[in-house]
Design goal:
Blueprint lengths: L1 H13 L3 E4 L6 E6 L4 E8 L2 E4 L2 H10 L5 H9 L5 H8 L17
Antiparallel strand pairs: 1-2, 2-3, 3-4
Helix pairs in contact: 1-3
């Protein structure tokens, strides 16, 4: 319950943030809080969404992983409702080669 509330609060805090895709860095976004006049760069990688804000760094230190409101703003911008949805979409199932039997890829 705590983790769900923890994530939901950050998602709600992300709704007023402005996300802009960066052209100078692949998979990077600028997230701006116009009310507080702050800006953070968020990077999307296959294993998560990474930010340099204090909240994200605290989550990494104490929980081992995390997603801050800036990360949730980027996830929403990309069409994902959660970090879990994003991570699931990043898993790529390799196509089998025609010379390989199908059984090697069966679950």
């Amino acid at each position: 319950v705590f983790k769900q509330h923890f994530a939901e609060w950050r998602k709600s805090q992300s709704k007023n943030l402005k996300v802009t895709e960066r052209l100078d860095r692949p998979n990077a976004y600028t997230v701006r809080n116009e009310y507080r006049d702050t800006t953070y760069i968020v990077e999307t990688l296959a294993d998560g969404v990474f930010c340099h804000c204090e909240d994200f760094n605290n989550q990494i230190q104490f929980l081992g992983r995390g997603c801050c409101k800036h990360g949730y703003a980027v996830l929403r911008h990309l069409g994902f409702g959660s970090l879990s949805d994003y991570l699931t979409a990043q898993k790529v199932v390799p196509l089998r080669k025609a010379s390989e039997p199908a059984a090697t890829y069966a679950a």
